């Protein structure tokens, strides 16, 4: 009986093992046939070829319709790794003008799933990008000798003019981070890297399409699968109209030749940026095609950093242009009136502290203090504001109130321009000084902020925006470089007004002071009988060399059409470079060109170099 029982146990064990084996085979077959797409891919790849159709990238024009950026046909060589086995690589390399070492390195890069996360041996992978029509024609003659290699028609960006490189930006191959951040992209795709190309990438890129082609057993294309029933057409990218005036931009870059700094001009009523110059600069055509990488390294290695957009990334002391913010704050807070006069005996003197000033009549009131750019007036104003215990309970409260005014005028934070990389600048607050001086500080400790020095820093864009705000008597629209997007509305950030904490009356006094600066003050080089210019110079102290030259202004005084900031590093005085360059820029925009006399002046400033002219890389003298 016991033997029969043991036999019965073995029977069940053997049956169980058989069931497990059968179940394992069934599970494997189910996985291979239904869950895994390896066989499907293999079969499909033998009969079908899915060719990606890339959309035309949107064109870019200036505010007057001049074409700045467009597309030109180019060709990519694609490879299907499962099909290229047995290709004569030596002949392929000779045809394409590459070395065997480059070929092997590129193949390894394609197979590397860390660098190419979308890799599949059954699908097309980018082997070589952006061949010209001439290069492609050589390859096409022998293409059928290279099994697994195909041609993908693409386009390459072309630039009509050698200007506005920092605004336009460029297009390059996607990085791993780009692909991880947006599933739209695959290895070998292109994406905007800088400027407008980056900021408006989603509008410019369009939508991809797919074309499914039928192949025979030799891999030859026999036609479209089911007459294109399953094809999808690409959707072109949207065209952009910039607010940039090309002629004004060209003049600005010409005048900044051989100099470091920036120029920003804004239309006050709209916030549209009319020009944005950063110097030294480069020809945007350098950053296209397969030479982009080498040229990018060349520009990156240049000690004067031509890739840096100083207009929105350069942090500078605003100098005396900042006195306009102080006049507005002091007036609105009731610290000064138009009749308030302060003594200036060669500068501000208090408890052994001296802030020097140049010679001018003394005592002096609000409007003349702006016209003559008096340092002492604004030092006294800040001193009395921060020391006023009837109005403010502590110096910290006064400082906070001061900071709030300046921030409302567009300083201390990014304005929100529609370009990547904008820097916020620095407007110190009470907490900053509490940490720095362990809460033991007063007005004299921080007196230099009243004249745009000390810890205060700003970008040329912020200073130009200050000019636009004064021109509008107390409001501004966030500056932006795109005027119109095809079939799309601008973000409301670029259409709504932003008001400051100062009232219209305060602005009227500041406008009078800036007008006097042009008629009989530090900005007299900007004076003209054709329209009324308002301006303010800035000579910003520089501990690392010669002082910087700055100018901020607008014109005409009533119904203004242009506000501008010119900032020239190591330009010494505000009226040495800032004022005359600003005057030429305003004349160009307001009159449509320069007079013969002004053209002669422009040539003089074009030839005044503070750095080597060779540092304007890739640009010829226009």
Quick structural overview:
The chain is 36% helix and 18% strand. The chain contains 21 helices and 20 strands.
Would you give an account of this structure?
There is one protein chain. The protein is of the alpha+beta class. The protein contains 21 helices and 20 strands. Strands 2, 3, 4, 5, 10 and 16 form a six-stranded mixed beta sheet that branches. The chain has a five-stranded antiparallel beta sheet with strand order 12-11-20-19-18, with helices on both faces. A hairpin with a 6-residue loop joins strand 19 (548-555) and strand 20 (562-568). The model has no long low-confidence stretch (mean pLDDT 90).
According to CATH, what is the topology of the largest domain? Beta-lactamase
Task: Please write the CATH class name of the largest domain.
Answer: Alpha Beta
The tally of domains stands at 2
**Helicity range:** 25-40%
Largest sheet: 6 strands, mixed
Q: Give me the CATH superfamily of the largest domain.
A: DD-peptidase/beta-lactamase superfamily
The CATH architecture assignment of the largest domain turns out to be 3-Layer(aba) Sandwich
> Which word captures the global form?
elongated
Query: What is the mean pLDDT?
Result: 90
CA-to-CA gap between the ends? Answer: 111 Å
* Integer-rounded radius of gyration: 33 Å
Structural class: alpha+beta
How many strand units?
20
- What fraction strand? 15-25%
Q: Number of helical runs? A: 21
- The low-pLDDT segments are none
